[in-house]
């Protein structure tokens, strides 16, 4: 079986409406992308978790999939008529049937975090069987080790977990940081996330890696303080969570923060200096890791 894929460049003013109309007219799927992606004019569009993204790329592109027998010209014309816009120009390519599982897996290779720490998908052999290997597959929850924010936190854990520390992974996503802490020698480790899917993914990943981390929704998170609290979230929630996160850190304990853009580092460091002696920020591909030591208050 094969499919037809149409690429339609369109202004953002009617990209969503046209995408919906194409689906109504018989398209199998429709995605909106940045028409200038990969160029110097690429436009970053992102928002904080739970907040709607209220804009699209000024130069949007629809990538639309059709059945092989579909009359693409007729469907595109019907969609344009429904939206009330001129017939757009488009290009079509034929997409042959493939082993999509194998193709997807081929895009995810083992990730080297340090000399002794690797993230390895379950379908790969470990590049270094003697290293600390985290078995983790791409899934529905954020955190596979490929993003700079996750990598920054993993590198800190690799360098600073000495053995027996209690750890809280706040905003655990896939559970990767809690699992890494345990495999690096940490003691009791817990994680929390507002997304029930993240809790399920974290529990599954912990079982896959043979470690006993516990994961909770925030309302069920046990009270207590920890030697290390790591929070790889984003700037807005970190701004609001300062006092709460500080309350989970023992005096003399460490906080590790990421999900922060480089230009946000000074502001976030100033906020957390209320409770912590902050270290110099560490940067990776435009993202920041902030760390600090809890002061006696």
TrEMBL record:
Q: Which GO terms describe its molecular function?
A: methyltransferase activity
* Keyword Ribosomal protein (UniProt): yes
Q: Which CDD domains match?
A: AdoMet_MTases
The reaction(s) annotated as catalysed by this protein in its Swiss-Prot or TrEMBL entry are: L-lysyl-[protein] + 3 S-adenosyl-L-methionine = N(6),N(6),N(6)-trimethyl-L-lysyl-[protein] + 3 S-adenosyl-L-homocysteine + 3 H(+)
UniProt key word Nucleus: no
Q: Which InterPro entries match?
A: Ribosomal_L11_MeTrfase_PrmA (IPR050078), Ribosomal_PrmA_MeTrfase (IPR004498), SAM-dependent_MTases_sf (IPR029063)
Annotated Gene Ontology cellular component terms: ribosome
- Residues given in the record as S-adenosyl-L-methionine binding sites: 150, 171, 193, 232
Name the protein family: Belongs to the methyltransferase superfamily. PrmA family.
Protein name per UniProt: Ribosomal protein L11 methyltransferase
Q: What SUPFAM superfamilies does the entry give?
A: S-adenosyl-L-methionine-dependent methyltransferases
- Per the UniProt entry, the Enzyme Commission number(s) are 2.1.1.-
Q: What is its main location?
A: cytoplasm
Q: Where would you find this protein in the cell?
A: Cytoplasm
Extract the NCBIfam families matched here. Answer: prmA (TIGR00406)
According to its UniProt entry, the function of this protein is described as: Methylates ribosomal protein L11.
Q: Which GO terms describe its biological process?
A: methylation
Swiss-Prot/TrEMBL keywords: Cytoplasm, Methyltransferase, Ribonucleoprotein, Ribosomal protein, S-adenosyl-L-methionine, Transferase
């Amino acid at each position: 079986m094969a499919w037809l894929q149409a690429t339609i460049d369109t202004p953002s003013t009617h990209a969503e409406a046209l995408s919906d109309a194409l689906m109504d007219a018989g398209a199998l799927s429709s995605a909106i992308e940045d028409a200038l992606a990969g160029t110097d004019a690429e436009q970053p569009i992102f928002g904080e978790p739970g907040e709607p993204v209220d804009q699209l790329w000024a130069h949007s592109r629809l990538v639309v999939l059709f059945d092989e027998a579909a009359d693409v010209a007729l469907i595109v014309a019907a969609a344009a008529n429904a939206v009330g816009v001129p017939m757009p120009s488009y290009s079509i390519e034929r997409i042959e049937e493939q082993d999509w599982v194998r193709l997807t897996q081929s895009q995810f290779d083992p990730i080297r975090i340090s000399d002794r720490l690797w993230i390895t998908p379950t379908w790969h052999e470990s590049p270094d069987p003697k290293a600390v290997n985290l078995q983790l597959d791409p899934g529905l929850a954020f955190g596979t080790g490929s993003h700079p924010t996750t990598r920054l936190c993993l590198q800190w854990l690799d360098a600073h977990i000495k053995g027996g520390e209690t750890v809280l992974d706040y905003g655990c996503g896939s559970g990767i940081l809690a699992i890494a802490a345990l495999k690096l020698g940490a003691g009791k480790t817990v994680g929390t996330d507002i997304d029930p899917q993240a809790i399920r993914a974290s529990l599954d990943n912990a079982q896959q890696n043979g470690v006993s981390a516990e994961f909770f929704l925030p309302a069920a998170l046990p009270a207590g303080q920890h030697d290390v609290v790591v929070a790889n979230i984003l700037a807005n929630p970190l701004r609001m969570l300062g006092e709460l996160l500080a309350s989970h850190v023992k005096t003399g304990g460490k906080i590790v923060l990421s999900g922060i853009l480089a230009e946000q580092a000074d502001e976030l460091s100033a906020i957390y200096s209320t409770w912590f002696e902050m270290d110099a920020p560490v940067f990776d591909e435009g993202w920041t890791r902030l760390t600090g030591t809890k002061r006696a208050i």
